[in-house]
Structures are given as C-alpha cells and as structure tokens.
Specification:
heterodimer; A: mainly alpha; Ferritin; two-stranded antiparallel sheet; 63% helix; B: alpha/beta; GMP Synthetase, Chain A, domain 3; 2 domains; four-stranded mixed beta sheet; Ferritin-like (chain A)
Chain lengths: 270, 166
Amino acid sequence: MTEKDSIMSPEYKKAITNLLFQLADDDFLYAYRGSEWLGLAPHIEEDVASSSISQDSMGHAAMYYKLLEDLEVGNADDLAHLRPVKERRNSVLTERVNGEGYYMETPQYDWAYQVVRSYFYTQAKKVKVDSLSESSYSPIAEVAVKVKMELYYHRLHWETWFKQLLSSTDVAKKKMNDAIELVMGDFGDVFSYGNQKQVIETSRLIASEELLKEKWKASIEPVFSALQMKVPPIPEQPTKNGRNGEHTKDLNEALLTLSEVYKLDPVATW
Amino acid sequence: MTASVEVSAGRVLEVLKRVNDPEIDSISIIDLGMVGEVTTEGNNVKVVLLPTFLGCPALEIIKLNTMKAVKKLPEVDEVEVEFVFHPPWTSDRITEQGHVNLRKFGIAPPPRHLEEDGSWHVDCAYCGSTYVTMENIFGPTACRSILYCKSCKNVFEAMKPVSTLM
C-alpha cells in the first residue's frame, strides 16, 4: 500500500502539494536557465559539466512533478509546461535571465552571475534536501535521498568556481561581488513557503524557514571566511514572493520559450 | 486437468541479463545493479528498476528494452516496469562482472572505497596505472567522469561513485 491509498487529511495533502510545486518549479527554472549556457560556457569542459548539472536538475524537477501526478494533481508534463505564470511557485531567483540579449541572437550572459546564483542556490537546495530526507511524507524523503547523492557533485563544482573566481583578478572579484549583490537581492523568497508557511511547517514535511536560513548561512560560512568575506544577509522580506505567484516578466518569456514545442503537439511522446 | 506453465522470476532474471545499458552496451542492467525486484503473478511480470541518475535520458529506453525482452518469453502475458527510488541506486550495487564489463568498454569502474574527506581515486581503465589526473568530474553522461592517464597517455572515463554517505 502506498501513502496515497492511506488516509490523508485534506490539510496534509494541501501542504504536500504546495511544497512539491515550490520544489519542482525551482528546479525546473534553474535547469532551464542552466541549459541556456549550452555552447556559451567559458570552456568546453564547463559546457559538459553545466549541461550535466542542468540535466540532473531537470530530472529532479521531473520527479517532483511525478509525485504531484501520483497525488492526482495532474499529468507531470502538463504541470511543467502548461501552468500559467501566476500559478508558478518558483523563487524569483531561479527565473532571472542569465544576462542581456537572447540565446539565439547575441547573448551577453554573465558568468559570474551564473556561478554565484548556482552556488547559492545549490547550497540552499542541499540544506532543503537534507531536511526533506527526513520528511513525514516518505515518497518525498525517498526522492530527497536520491537528489542528495547527485547534488554532492553540483555543490562541489560551483564551490570550486566560486572560490577560484573570488581569489582571482580584481576584475573577477568586482564581477563576483556585483553578482553576489544581484543574487542576494532575490534571495528573500528562496527559503520562504509564502502564504503556505504555517501549513507546510506544521505538517513536518520540511524544517522551518528560519532553521533552513540558519543552516544555509552556517554551511557557506567556512568558504566565506577562507576568502576573508562575510556571508551576505538574506533579505527579511522578498520584494516579490514567487511562492505566492509573484513573478517578473523574465518568467513569462522563459515559459513561452520552454513550452513552445510542447504546445505544438501536446500528445507527442517525450 | 490442464497443465499451465507459469512464468518464474528466475526465467525473467535470465532474460534481464541480456538487457544492456543503451549508452554502455557492454554491461547489463543486472550487473549495473538497476534491477530491484522481479515479481510474478500467474503469467504477469512486474520488474522494479532503480534509476541510476534521475535525469538520465536513457531511463525510458531501458524501460522499453526491458519490457520488450521480457515479453519475448512465451509464457508471459503482461509486463509492468516501474522505477522506484527506495532503495536508492548507489555505485556499490555494480557487480564484480559489472566492473569487468565496464573496463571492456574503456570505463574505469567506480572505486569501492571513498576516503574520509569524500575524495576518491581510480586507476587507468586501459593500463591500470595509478598515475592519472581528473580532467572533468562531469563526463559525456551524468554517471561518468573524464580522466587522463599520464602513463599510457590515454583519455579515459570513470563511472562516478554515488553513495548515500556523500
């Protein structure tokens, strides 16, 4: 018997569904932005690595959407491709463009931003999956254990870039510090559960927002102190909270591109 | 009384030994440790598979190949293939034969032991030399890394160690 068949209170199911949308949409957009670096990364080894990380992350999103499908919320592919912007629960950080220009024309993407966003996001994801692996909902806990094993390599990768660029030339340091400022400006909703905070936290699906923030700070503290830098503060309140469906126009454009092929032929086999 | 031949899990496992990884065709899904459980009910078969990496694009192909292979058994009616995440697939699940078959393909098998700090070491897949450098921890597929052997001057791949201890 699966948990789906056992008795689940509507409250509990609501909490699971909301959290799964946040996790799925985060990884979906993060993977999409990562995949936009294909062919543009600083060197060929990085192209291979970034693509692999994006592919893994898309796999993580797919698993979370599948858990939603198992709860009869909808078909996983539809949930990923067809939900309108206001129903998206990803953090604003994951939807931001990689820089100026478009992929097919003249992309002037910012590698420092990619490194900082990826490192901070991956570290946040690590803190979350550590907590999720003890989730009260066992299908989430099982997926989290699997995600954690793959995340080990992602974290290692981005941490290496982060340390090296911040120990490099003055230009590199300047670009990295600018990127840190940009990324932290959007960090206010990364650990937020939005207006679902109470129901998610009381259901013991994952730790509280506050605890996860503390764990994130503690986890990157050694890297910052080795660089003789201070961990930047997480904004108290997000300017826009993606968990409540508040998004930027970057998301509209991303979803239009993302779902273009799927909408052409929704019954095609993927 | 009519005699009926029910399908046995043992027969199914024999067939699965010939279902190979589509990206590394020297190794079967059994030797990769991807087969979790095979159950039969009358003439219906259920195969539970453990995915290696969650985003691996080969998973759907493996699923299809598994179904096709099992359906070829004359006594089989229905075949169901399901991916589960518990227990999680780890590289420890690769069998000894799997290690041999990976080497045949030019891929160094994952190390059996990790150092206390989580680091690991593999020897050259071709000449066995220990004098190797890591070129890229990410390789042509999610499960592989790229290394260079300073002894025989070959580039080779290694399967990443994947462990719940990481």
